[in-house]
Amino acid sequence: MVYQVYVRSFLDSTGDGVGDLAGVRAGLPYLKKLGVDGIWLSPFYPSPQRDHGYDVADYRGVDAVYGDLAEFDLLMSAARRIGIRVLLDIVPNHCSSEHPWFREALAAAPGSPARARFHFADGRGPDGSEPPNNWHSMFGGPAWTRVTEPDDRPGQWYLHMFTPDQPDWNWRTPEIAAEFDQVLRFWLDRGVDGFRIDVAAGLYKHPELPDSDDPEADARTRDSVNPLAWNQPEVHDVWRHWRAVCEEYRRRDGRERLLVGEVSVPTAREHARYVRADELHQAFFLDLHGAPWQAGAFRKVICEAVQDIAGTGSTVTWVLNNHDQVRTVTRYGEPAEGSGLGAARARAAALLMLALPGAAYIYQGEELGLPEVVDLPDDVLTDPIFHRTGSRARIRDGCRVPLPWSGQASPFGFTKGVEGVKPWLPQPDYFAAYATDRALGDTRSFWHLYREGLQLRSTLPQLGEGTLRWLDTPPDVLAFVRGDGLICAVNFGTFPALAPAAGAPLLASGPCPAGTLPGSTAAWWLADEAP
Q1: In sequence order, what are the residues at sequence separation of 6 or more whose Cβ sits closer than 8 angstroms to the Cβ of residue 443?
Q2: Which residues are catalytic, by number?
Q3: Which helix or strand (DSSP H or E) is residue 438 part of?
Q4: Residues linked to residue 282 through DSSP beta bridges, in sequence order
């Protein structure tokens, strides 16, 4: 179980309203008590922060707002002492427009080696005033921006599949692969345990950069679906090399380094190609958090993952949420908002995920049952999607509001509360009910459900390696057996259903009397013989 730390919203140690690495270090005992095996840190590299660190200006440093390399080393030492592994978020598809190499490219001539590091191309039309192709950015608008040449004339265009502040690297230039090889080694030499790879199906674009049959698909779906810009076959050579680098370090000291990719591809079968024995160790299987709350939909997603991914000998990597998605409680709460239905479903989904074979990742705040903050004022929104499209649809600020730790009013222990300084995104008053200190003191809370589930997950042999076997169930109920007689069952319906095993459950997501499985509830049973 790996816990995603969105650094700027986890815990602020300096009182400037932004979380930092020292805050992460201070929160390690909390995470150890929860029972996680590792943490994944969102980008903390020097950056203009136009996409909060996913626009990297220097891959070998720490932005001053988060600390410095000395503080990073302290964090690594503290995590190592208590047995928590540390994964860094690396962004190889694009960089910041303030990266020294991109600045050099802007100052260089068309066709120069400096421009070859990126995707520069002449525009179409008699005066070159039209983009080189019809691709659209995932964050809205054209995927191309025209530059002004050093002689002040309108010039070439450069490709950015996200924002103009994030030019895409051209991985067909060997210098890029060599540079990232050195970046990996820089952080591996500082003791990190691996990397979460942003946009892992990206990197390579079709060599001819042709027009797309559906140019607005990425912007419409907010997903990497343009087959000309994503999932090119050459990307697998990158992951084979990165895997070889990790194996080199493992041979030195016997400690495995982990590569986990953010892989967005159309099918589980294509996903499985990224986790072959010589490529990534793990790749987020994102279909689970996109499934509607229906037994059939969840079973279909699980079956495809187990068949196509686990069938390769790899681990399925389950996620219900991350820093780009609406929080689970809110996502499952529609249309009965405020009824408690979303919370009940989110608890059941968490117990289901923890019972599945493979790895599991949890986004910070999910263990508190935090809802999405849906009413942030326009003037505080920072998501570039909002600023590029003018639409609040699918913006990500609502799941990134700083965590509440204690107290009855903002900043809820997140920051030291220096006079006049507020958290970088405002926390709603109702966060008081979700504060960490309150969750730890309430044995019925989300936090205790996650903690108990993680404890059982680490101790029950039935939840180790191996597949699952489905049981026959009433409509709207899923049930499967893990190992020797551990049953996980979820009632997606409304009315109570017969439990698949007699007696009280070992662990349940809500009130679950013996012999029943109430609606929107999951439970684990131990049975001598699974029916």
Answers
A1: none
A2: 198, 248
A3: helix 436-441
A4: 260
Secondary structure of residue 407 in the 3-state scheme: coil
- Please name the residues in contact with 437: beta carbons below 8 A apart, sequence gap of 6 or more: 405, 406, 413
Rg of the chain (C-alpha set): 24
Q: Which helix (H) or strand (E) holds 393?
A: none
Distance of CA 82 to the CA centre of its chain: 24
- The identity of residue 215, as a single letter, is P
DSSP states along 82-112: TT-EEEEEE--SB--TTSHHHHHHHHSPTT-
Q: What is the pLDDT of residues 220-238, one digit of tens each?
A: 777 788 999 999 999 999 9
pTM passes above 0.70: yes
pLDDT at residue 528, as a whole number: 64
**DSSP codes of every residue in 139-162:** TSSBSEEEEE-TTSSEEEEEE-SS
Cβ-Cβ contacts under 8 Å for 25 (sequence gap 6 or more): 71, 74, 75, 78, 79
pLDDT of residue 392 exceeding 80: no
Q: What is the mean pLDDT of the chain?
A: 93
Largest CA distance in the chain: 80
Which has the higher per-residue pLDDT, 377 or 78? Answer: 78
265-318 pLDDT per residue, tens: 988 889 999 999 999 999 999 898 889 999 999 999 999 998 888 777 788 999
DSSP 484-497: TTEEEEEE-SSS-E
Q: Residue range 485-510: average pLDDT?
A: 87
DSSP strand pairing (507-508 vs 521-526): antiparallel
**Residue 169 DSSP one-character state:** B
Contact 52, 382 (CB under 8 A): yes
Rounded Cα gap, residues 220 and 525, in angstroms = 43
Type and span of the H or E element at 354:
helix 341-355
Cβ pair 316, 356 in contact under 8 A? yes
Confidence at residue 500, expressed as pLDDT on a 0 to 100 scale: 67
State what percent of residues in the chain have pLDDT above 90.
Answer: 78
Do residues 303 and 282 touch, judged by C-beta distance below 8 A? Answer: no
- Closest Cα partner for 314 from 279, 350, 362? 279
> Which tokens is 46 given?
């020097």
Q: How far apart are CA 259 and CA 254, in angstroms?
A: 16
When mean pLDDT is compared across 32-36, 215-219, 448-452, the lowest value belongs to 215-219
